[in-house]
Amino acid sequence: MNSSYPEPIRSTFAPAWSLSLIRRNSIIKPLPGLCIALLLSAHPLVAEDPGTPPTPLLFYSFDMDKGATDVEDISGGGRNAILETPSGAESAVGAPAGIVGKAFDNRASTGMGLEGTGASVLYSGPKEMAFGELASFSIVVWIQTDALQGGSAQVFSFDGTQDPLILGIPSRNKISLQIGESAAIFESRQFDSAGQWVFVAVTYNSLSDDQKIRCYVGKQGWDGIQLVGEKNSLHGPWNGAAKNPRWSLALGNTPLPEKNRPFQGLIDQVRFYGSADTGAGALSREQLEALFSSDQK
After folding, report:
1. What pLDDT is stored for residue 189 in this prediction?
2. Ordered domains of the chain (ranges, CATH)
3. CA atoms within 13 A on the CB side of 54
4. What pLDDT score does 274 carry?
5. Stretch among 72-81, 83-92, 110-119, 210-219 having the lowest mean pLDDT
6. In angstroms, rounded to a whole number, what is the distance separating the alpha carbons of residues 124 and 247?
7. I need a labelling partner for 111 at 20 to 30 A (CA). Which of 10, 25, 164, 278 fits?
8. Distance CA 174, CA 191 (A)
């Protein structure tokens, strides 16, 4: 009997140890005791649920006492922010009416965007804490306002990075994402919350064949989210490296010292995802649906 066999044939649908086969006399036979494993290999084995979102690079939930000025980054990344409030304003984190727990309350702003002044939640950090170049990313946020009037209000804004990255409201019922010097604008009546919590997510994957920016919206109480639209982008990866010794992120307004484009309303559950070398930073619709659902439980 010849005891020498060719190399095992391995299936791509499961770990090699569970599906190794041997060839003897031109007949492929499973190794002893592995018949059950072969029956289970009709579908690929996945290490993780593809609908589970990854850990965000930034996550602000604003769940602190009303009147607090320190805003914790609960992603674990250590980019804790501070509430910056104009003299005499009453804007505050820790408002009791968040989609989850509490929220950032910027309703005391004197107007929306260029029409007023208001507070911001600001992170300012050294260049070593900048994200560098990201091949893919997602911004996910809940907003609530009496009227989405625009005025170039800013909801999420990086400043001092090689490429600006701004999620804003250019005019009524519109959401824009600016990457570098170009912006993609999405329009939907669903953005106008009229006092209702609205889920907004924008994703971008520079490694995909289409390189599209995608925008999604959902409202509190909906069964799921909607794709608002897709816009082509030729920008390539977002360069989030710091231009100077320090850089900043502002929520609800422009970064200091220019507090002149406030979002007049409530902001909650701000998340930022990203990947330097894969498309994983651009969350799938299934992953966004999971966030939308879990935030309302």
Report:
1. 87
2. 1-45 (no CATH), 58-294 (2.60.120.200)
3. 18
4. 98
5. 83-92
6. 6
7. 164
8. 7
